[in-house]
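Technical annex, item 7. During the second reporting period the consortium partners agreed on a shared format for inverse folding records so that results from different sites could be compared directly. Each record opens with the tokenized structure and is followed by the designed sequence. A conforming record, contributed by the partner at site C, is shown below for reference.
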């Protein structure tokens, strides 16, 4: 059976872990902000401004999601401390109560572990929405089919997280698959979850488009960047932009395919390219593409990647062997992340969006 000292040590270890989490998650800063929001929401004027009140309620929900579990854990710790004092005062120790306390402490440890995962989202923009750019590499139909497989994989993963999706652009391949796609992902820590997926993804399989059924290697580029339009004074010189309009190659009916509503914007100094075709309105597509462009440029400047900007864009045009982050070897039933050495033999499960095993491992290692 458990001794009083053992239970005290176990409870103290939970308390120390809870304190660390409070530090990483900036508990007191969030608590102060929640108090400010609650005061603001008491004002009648705020409720007349629908957009402002919606933003405040969304932020309130986000803060409570982090603060309430910590508060609940602290209440339980306080309760068990008081209970242990009462047990100590008894001449005959109640072993059954000590056993129940230990079980509850183990439950707290499980809750602490779930909160500890949020420590990995410590980067400045991890909590923001984000964009995913998918670009097929050289290899024709096989590479374009691979790009489409990756698009489906990420869409399934995003749906599993209950994030919101907006497919901004999808350029179909010549006969099969896609040449490129851009998705906007909305949800708490969308960028934090996805940022380590950026890089080259390598596929090895027997090519279904080859009559000889030979083994082929294909590559696709995944580029992830946060939606960081706010808080920047990024000035875009329109003379440095090339704006192209074209007919959408995606689904959407006759109007979409016959009207030049799709927009592609190239920022000439950096080589950054964005595309949008999700609306029937050219004006709306241009507006969304400009938001993407600013987010992308902000992301690059934040990382001080003046030299790497060109490499990122060049990699989209020349996606070949080397620098890949993950290999998907289908005929060997093996997927391996080359950064973390995490492997899976269940190919179909991973392609169906079960990516947490890979994402969590890369986040834990600080990629």
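Designed sequence (site C submission):
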């Amino acid at each position: 059976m458990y001794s009083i000292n053992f239970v005290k040590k176990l409870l103290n270890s939970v308390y120390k872990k809870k304190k660390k989490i409070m530090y990483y998650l900036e508990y007191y800063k969030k608590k102060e902000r929640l108090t400010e929001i609650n005061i603001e929401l008491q004002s009648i004027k705020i409720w007349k401004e629908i957009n402002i009140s919606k933003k405040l309620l969304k932020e309130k929900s986000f803060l409570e999601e982090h603060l309430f579990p910590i508060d609940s854990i602290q209440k339980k710790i306080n309760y068990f401390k008081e209970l242990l004092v009462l047990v100590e005062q008894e001449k005959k120790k109640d072993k059954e109560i000590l056993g129940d306390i230990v079980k509850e402490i183990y439950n707290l440890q499980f809750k602490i572990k779930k909160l500890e995962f949020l420590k990995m989202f410590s980067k400045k923009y991890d909590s923001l929405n984000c964009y995913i750019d998918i670009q097929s590499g050289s290899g024709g139909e096989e590479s374009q089919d691979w790009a489409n497989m990756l698009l489906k994989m990420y869409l399934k993963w995003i749906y599993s997280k209950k994030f919101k999706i907006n497919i901004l652009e999808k350029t179909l391949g010549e006969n099969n698959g896609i040449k490129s796609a851009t998705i906007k992902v909305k949800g708490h820590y969308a960028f934090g979850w996805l940022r380590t997926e950026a890089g080259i993804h390598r596929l090895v399989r027997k090519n279904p488009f080859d009559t000889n059924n030979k083994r082929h290697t294909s590559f696709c580029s995944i580029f992830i960047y946060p939606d960081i339009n706010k808080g920047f004074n990024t000035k875009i010189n329109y003379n440095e932009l090339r704006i192209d309009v074209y007919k959408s190659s995606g689904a959407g009916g006759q109007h979409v395919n016959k009207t030049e509503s799709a927009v592609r914007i190239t920022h000439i100094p950096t080589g950054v390219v964005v595309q949008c075709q999700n609306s029937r309105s050219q004006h709306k597509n241009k507006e969304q593409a400009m938001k993407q462009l600013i987010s992308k440029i902000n992301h690059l400047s934040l990382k001080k990647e003046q030299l790497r900007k060109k490499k990122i864009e060049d990699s989209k045009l020349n996606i070949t062997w080397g620098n890949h982050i993950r290999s998907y070897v289908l005929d060997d039933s093996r997927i391996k992340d080359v950064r973390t050495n995490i492997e899976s033999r269940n190919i179909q499960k991973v392609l169906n969006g079960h990516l947490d095993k890979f994402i969590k491992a890369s986040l834990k290692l600080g990629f």
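The longest strand covers residues 215-226. The chain has two domains: 4-120, 131-364. All partners now use this format for quarterly exchanges.
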